[in-house]
Design brief:
Helix content: 40-55%
Strand content: 5-15%
CATH topology of the largest domain: Rossmann fold
Number of strands: 15
Structural class: alpha/beta
Oligomer: single chain
Distance between the termini: 64 Å
Length: about 425
């Protein structure tokens, strides 16, 4: 039997494909129908930028705010020092504290595009759990919080069980992560009246532990909601590409590359991605996703523009589309292509075609670049490149050179002193 929610938030969540599971869907629906609910999602600070796999959670917070509730963006400055074992085959690398702080500042830039921060009734507090975890007294924590957890239950969590079943090490520091995340929920309940934690489906065990801790310690109801693991129609994990992660921050991935990733999603994903990562009406998302032939390409351009506008801003989206049309329709260069700038000393007596392809990011290694050239997949200024050892000297690079890998990936190479 399909549940038909009465609250605007849950109706939106369900119609757009965000719901995997909920601890008590009807009770949460009733709470959200009656009044404003505060909910949170935590984000690890293990990299300079989040990637597009995190957009599911960011959009969930955005919809929460747009439907009259208060989202909390929890920065994991404390828990990142430990490392979440969920979905991991080995212990995370420990990051220096200063690096964690730098990552937090970089990640905040993207949140500011999606979520309104401030002191208003639906404004999001931007909170870092290092505020309470860094000064946590261990004996007191064990007495007050640890007593509510059993080893039997922790061992039953999928994130723990899968590691042990594969006979992979699970450190004691990671084992503590589940208690810390549950404590985060309790602390946010006490500070902000937060009664909802959301996250990916791999966080289910951690989230349920938090709701149970609030019930045991405070005697209050709290809820958990998870989103499904989003994969592409070709089976690849959301947020990944053949070249690596698809980053949200401009410093990690150019506007053109970001736009182009969405433009190139499989046809079958267009409708689903429009519903999850844009604010277009659901009916319009389904109409665009059902298009076929050449029309589906226009739907993909719409998807790329809508997502890029939200994440990078309208000017960045327009520039990326203009570059794409210049490159693909007119055979031009395009101002927004990823660009490799070389100093005169980098060139010396010459630089090989394979080296240029690697340094421009179109291949990960010289071996890969040589294979690309051997398979007739590389071009220079739209002309086939057949010799991996072809040398480019200063004169050859005196004007920008366009490198291409296949039909969809391009980069510019130019001298640092070129305009």
């Amino acid at each position: 039997m399909t549940y038909h929610p009465k609250s605007e938030f849950l109706a939106t969540v369900m119609s757009r494909g965000f719901l995997a599971d909920c601890t008590d869907l009807s009770a949460l629906d009733e709470q959200m129908r009656k009044g404003r609910v505060t909910g949170y999602i935590g984000f690890d600070l293990t990299a300079t930028s989040l990637h597009i796999g995190n957009l599911v959670q960011i959009m969930l917070l955005r919809w929460m705010q747009k439907t009259g509730h208060r989202p909390i963006t929890l920065m994991g400055g404390g828990t990142t020092k430990v490392g979440d074992p969920s979905g991991k085959d080995e212990m995370r690398k420990m990051l220096p504290v200063e690096k964690i702080r730098e990552n937090a500042e970089s990640i905040r830039k993207v949140f500011l595009r999606y979520i309104s921060y401030g002191d208003g009734p639906t404004d999001s507090p931007l909170v870092d759990n290092s505020e309470w975890l860094d000064d946590l007294r261990y004996i007191g924590f064990l007495r007050d919080i640890g007593k509510h957890f059993t080893i039997n239950r922790l061992l039953a969590f999928e994130s723990v069980k899968s590691r042990l079943d594969r006979e992979q090490a699970l450190s004691f520091i990671e084992f503590n992560y589940m208690l810390l995340q549950a404590y985060d929920f309790l602390e946010l309940y006490r500070r902000f009246g937060c009664t909802l934690q959301m996250g990916g489906s791999d966080q289910w065990g951690n989230i349920v532990s938090g709701t149970d801790l609030i019930r045991r310690v405070e005697g209050a109801d709290a809820f958990g909601l998870t989103t499904p693991l989003v994969t592409r129609a070709d089976g690849r994990k959301m947020g990944k590409s053949a070249e690596g992660a698809v980053w949200l921050n401009e410093e990690m991935m150019s506007g053109y590359e970001f736009w182009q990733w969405w433009r190139n999603v499989p046809d079958e994903d267009v409708g689903k991605f429009l519903k999850m990562f844009t604010e277009l009406p659901v009916d319009e998302c389904e109409r665009l996703g059902a298009l076929g032939g050449s029309e589906i390409n226009e739907a993909k351009i719409r998807l790329a523009n809508e997502v890029a506008t939200l994440c990078r801003g309208p000017e960045a989206a327009r520039a990326a589309e203009e570059t794409a049309r210049e490159v693909f329709e007119k055979g031009g260069v395009g101002d927004e292509l990823p660009t490799l700038e070389l100093a005169r000393e980098d060139i010396g007596d010459g630089i090989s075609a394979a080296q240029l392809i690697v340094r421009s990011g179109l291949a990960k290694s010289g071996k890969e670049a040589k294979r690309l050239i051997a398979e007739n997949g590389a071009r220079v200024d739209d002309k086939p490149l057949t010799d991996a050892g072809q040398m480019f000297d200063f004169d050859a690079l005196s004007s920008p050179v366009k490198l291409s890998a296949g039909r969809k990936r391009h980069a510019l190479v130019k001298l640092q002193d070129q305009a």
